[in-house]
Amino acid sequence: MATTADQARVALGVRLRDIRRDAGLSGTQLANVSGWPPSKVSKIEHGRQTPTEADLSAWCDVCRAADQLPDLVAAVRSIETQYAEWRRVLRTGTRRRQEASAKAYEKARLFRIWEPAVIPGLLQTMSYATAVLATVIDFRLIPDDAEEGARARLARQRVLADDDRRFHVVIGEQALYTNVGGTDVMAEQLRHLLRLLRFPQLRLGIVLRDSPYRVPLHDGFWILDEALVQFDTYTAELSLIRPDEIGIYARAFERLAALAVYGPEVRKVISAATVGSQH
After folding, report:
1. What's the rounded Cα separation, in Å, for the pair 196 and 122?
2. Are residues 185 and 131 in the same domain?
């Protein structure tokens, strides 16, 4: 079975083949000019060999495609690193995963976050975070360290107090109603959200449940500055660094943010959910 790294390598090979063809060169011609064996070009283009950054530089130089080099370099750097297998990351529980995320957060100054069905980790209470991680632990059949993981997750929230950071968070209205941990946990979490609205660094928007369909809706994602997009699947955590991919997620976030309500309307929507959670 092809791994995600294999698939990314094949996609890169297709891009390089197109660049070569656009330059009007055969594989043999490219290999000869670059001083490579002819088989190297074929292996790279069919995803059987990962090119080095030096290979990419030579490829773009010969094909007169220097403008594409930065994006290709980003692609090759991400092939082996953009997919972190959950079994490896979580094999000792959830705490180390939370601590690893904190390192990325410390570097970022602009956070753009979309979560359709749950409250994002940066805005969670201890009880809510524990319940979320308990679900992950039960689903993944990994060591139970939900409380330790939750404490590490809350420790990441110290970035919220930094005046030089900005947080634009957009959630789906459903996140206010997804029953995480029970009635008391939800009521506490919603009250906490209302308190967080006082933070000048935080801009919170809510996409209402009857909002028009203006962007393909998938799972949540986080954009850190203009450098990284992170999101989870059932089997992997993906970290994207290619500028074109980051641009696509930035466009999706802009459209979701345009659908959201803000300010007094957000307080009204959360307050209504808070009343509902108490019944």
Report:
1. 11
2. yes
Number of structural domains the chain divides into: 2
Range of the domain at 62: 4-79
Q: Which two tokens stand for residue 20?
A: 């070569």
How far is C-alpha 148 from the geometric centre of its chain's CA atoms?
A: 23
Cα within 13 Å of Cα(94), Cβ side: 25
Q: Are residues 108 and 220 in the same domain?
A: yes
- What are the backbone dihedrals phi and psi of residue 90, each rounded to the nearest 5 degrees, phi first? -105, 10
Alpha carbon distance 4, 233 (integer Å): 12
Structure pTM?
0.73
Structure tokens at 41: 């070009």
| CATH code for position 131 | 3.30.870.10
Residues 6 or more apart whose Cβ sits within 8 Å of residue 165? 108, 109, 110, 111, 159, 201
Q: Give residue-wise pLDDT tens across range 250-274.
A: 999 999 999 999 999 999 999 999 9
Same domain, yes or no: 75 and 91: no
Confidence of residue 2 (pLDDT cuts 50, 70, 90): very low
Here the tokens at position 164 are 């030089």
* DSSP conformation class of 6: H
Residue that finishes a domain, picked among 79, 106, 133: 79
Rounded Cα distance between 41 and 249, Å, is 32
